[in-house]
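Model it.
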Amino acid sequence: MSPAVIVKTLAEKNIKLAALTDHNTSMNCPAFAACCRNAGIAALFGMEAQTAEELHVLCLFPELGTAMTFCTSWYESLPNIINKPEITGDQVYVDEHDEIVGELEKYLITSAPYSLDECAAMVHKAGGLVIPAHVDRPSFSMMSQLGTIVEGDWDALEFVRPQILEEQKQQRATDRQKSAVLEIKLPRAYPVTTSSDAHYIEHIGRRAFDLDIGTIPLVNGNGTVSLAAIRAGLAKRAVQP
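Modeled.
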């Protein structure tokens, strides 16, 4: 998916805030920033990082430059496995007009040498948000890699099906026989989000959610997204264990 087509689809679906998080890279974020600016869509920038545990983490930044610096350093830490386009596809990045600017050499579907906790500390030090991705999914998630939702300095937890938490509460309350599937428990209250995790245009907006930021402006005077507004909205989405 190109940033231009992504943003066109976001506008058609009336989505006001979006993040571009390619796997282990942010090289398409400059084009995304330009397209969002032209469309009047607030944008966050970053990547979906793959940690040493082979789980995915959304690393989100309000400033494009910070995202590019952080994600470039992360990319440089990846193992020196060269992508083979004829087998795994091209890894190009483009400008806002869909013109190819360059191609990444390292294969992106690998893990950096940093743990989940180390990743979170690094992102927060750089001024970003940390959201472990699709924690209830049976691959590349907390549940698949660690067997449970672990406590940590997360700004939110992303679920594919957040309703599973309430379903499990009801199951415990009625004392029904537990299934063989690992039970998902929150170690403490966390904001819960969903995301499209779109890899195809038709998936954009399939799990969008409302963020109630009250009267706090979403965008700062310099055009960047207000993390104060984001955190205020996330706080209202906190789910108790």
